[in-house]
User: Fold this.
Amino acid sequence: MRTLPARYQPSGPTVHGGMSSVAFCMDKVLERPVAVKFLQATTHRRRMDDELAALLKMRSKHVVQIYDLCKFSDNYIGIIQEFIDGKDLFESFAPPNGIDGYYRQLWQIASGISDIHAVDVIHRDIKPNNVKIDPEGVIKIFDFGLARDAGPAAATVGFVGTPGFAAPELYATAAKFTSAIDVYAFGATSLFMATGDLTPELKAIPPAPLPTGYFGAIRIPTGKNGTALSAEVVRLLDACLAKNPNDRPAITEVRDALARHLLFDRHQALVVFRGSPSYLNAANRAIALRFGTVGSVDIAYDGLKFAVTAASGEVYINNRPVATGYQLPGCCVVALGSPARRNNERVFITFDVSHPEIVV
Assistant:
């Protein structure tokens, strides 16, 4: 008999699925709605263990949180988790609200996947159906029914996934899978979020590669016109759908690129040279640093990054020689004069970038 603790009062019907059932309840102690997912501990033990391991590790703004566990005498386990009201992104699809709105959606999904990968877990079923927006506008990934820890033993026999969003390698007889399958699914989800559909290539079984530069032809509605994606975002989204898993970027790289574009022209760097502070930002885009004939460097801000635009002589950043095009890390020390010189023959400039938060 499955009887939940008295604190969980049923508030709606139980929904039954192929592998599990979900009951909606009110937590009377904390006065919040919860979803209770029931999984049998025998037939689907592997999947149950994987989902529990994934959810127990998650502490992410963009991934549903697990609150409690209940064990029952009939070999079932109840997972008490965060309840997100409303429809998923597939059911509630609407054209993106401008380019920033599109980037913001993708950034939130990429952030959730990044948090999942940070604890060495693979979701394995990223798709719009498994993503919801909470009442505060925060996007959250849910349904870890296919999740399992990454590692040498991460393999499955037979296809497991959702056609259209499943990476090509998952169609192999004995599929070796890595975090790259979530990156592929993110790329497919990004295409769906832009157009409301998938291409025939992605719908094929197994999926076929998209034409080179496919995302470059997409236009996001902006007023009466459409806006193209930035070249950097196009490159990364195209790469997400690469046939070879090794050619796909890490999801953190995609997340960080989207963040830069969302924060366009809002970064600021504090530069302290010989005790005198100055700022690089949208109002003051370039600075020239000189130390006699020893070395000189020009640094500029293009709205996305801070980079060396000219360098001559002995120029080092964090004790490494640099040249034109070098992108400065968030915090660093610029030295004019090589490490072989005595300290009084060198000057040091501190460079500290402040990154505003993305508000959702």
